[in-house]
Write a structure and sequence with these properties.
The protein is of the alpha+beta class. It folds into two domains: 92 residues, Phosphorylase Kinase, domain 1; 182 residues, Aminoglycoside 3'-phosphotransferase, Chain: A, domain 2 (Alpha-Beta Complex). It is 43% helix and 18% strand. The protein is built from ten helices and eleven strands. The strands form three sheets. A five-stranded antiparallel sheet has the order 1-2-3-5-4, covered by helices on one side. A three-stranded antiparallel sheet has the order 6-9-10, with helices on one face. Strands 7-11-8 form a three-stranded mixed sheet. The relative contact order is 0.14. The model has no long low-confidence stretch (mean pLDDT 96).
């Protein structure tokens, strides 16, 4: 894990009387940005330094969008409280309160209720739109596949699902990346973190990412069991959601397989097994 830049430590010491370098502890889990936990008088803060360039084809990386979401959702407990937003020579930097607890592991109902609550919030203007539907998903997947070597492209394009599913009629505020590592559980409270890719769109977009066998494998070590999946859908509380999840599942598995292939091509070897899980689900 990389230490923070010395000039960043000095800058934040001036702005917030933060401690010297020895008081910064690198946080694990981030796949794109760097983050540290810093003890301050009266609590614990996170300093998140955003990567200057990020070519991730599925998960955007916007510091300004994350700051907006923290301001909007922290009062209700769905997100940490934002302390400061700073532009530095190393990239955008956010400082927010550290969410006490541990990443989600084994209570699907807690995760489902947190996402259901989020999806009932009023969405601000200006967020990316993710209306879902098979045509939109297919275009997105083809863009991801186009980033891969020719043999990989041919292999994945052969898995294209058939059929047509329309876009969602009712849109909701989306987290965009609700994997287990971005859900911090403290008793019955769930705080969502890493808000750099929010959107407005089909609620199934968020649900599919949480339910993804690949994302569950990467972030907690194993996919959901059938019982866990059922408990999650029951607790979400929308009797119509199962049908839409099932209808769009082939495209969501195809997209995640393509994304895992892209990650594996970036030397993230753990995504090879994750891709295999998505292909198995797609072709079952």
């Amino acid at each position: 894990m990389h230490p923070p830049p010395q000039d960043l430590v000095a800058l934040l010491a001036q702005r917030h009387a933060m401690p010297a370098l020895a008081g910064w502890v690198a946080l694990p889990g981030g796949q794109t940005n760097r983050a540290w936990r810093v003890q301050v008088d009266g609590g614990s803060w996170v300093v998140k330094l955003f990567a200057r360039q990020d070519d991730n084809p599925l998960f955007p990386n916007s510091a300004s969008d994350e700051a907006r979401m923290l301001r909007l959702l922290a009062p209700g407990g769905l997100a940490p409280r934002l302390i400061d937003e700073v532009e530095t020579p190393h990239g955008s930097c956010l400082i927010y309160e550290h969410a006490e607890g541990a990443p989600w592991q084994d209570d699907p109902a807690l995760a489902a209720r947190a996402l259901a609550r989020l999806h009932r919030q009023e969405a601000p203007e200006g967020l990316r739109r993710l209306e879902g539907g098979s045509a939109s998903l297919s275009a997105e997947i083809e863009r991801i596949i186009g980033l891969l070597p020719a043999p990989e492209q041919k292999r994945l394009l052969a898995l294209r699902p058939e059929g047509l599913v329309p876009p969602a009629r009712a849109l909701a505020l989306l987290h965009g990346d609700p994997v287990p590592g971005n859900m911090i559980v403290n008793g019955a409270q769930v705080t969502l973190i890493d808000w750099q890719c929010p959107g407005v769109g089909d609620p199934v977009e968020d649900l599919a990412i949480f339910l993804s066998p690949a994302m569950q494998l990467i972030y907690r070590g194993r996919p959901l069991s059938e019982a866990e999946r059922a408990a999650f859908l029951d607790a979400y509380g929308d009797p119509n959601i199962r049908k839409r999840i099932a209808a769009l599942a082939p495209w969501h598995h195809w997209r995640m397989a393509a994304y895992c292939a892209w990650k594996a091509a970036q030397d993230c070897a753990e995504y090879e097994a994750a891709e295999a899980l998505e292909i198995a689900a797609l072709t079952a």
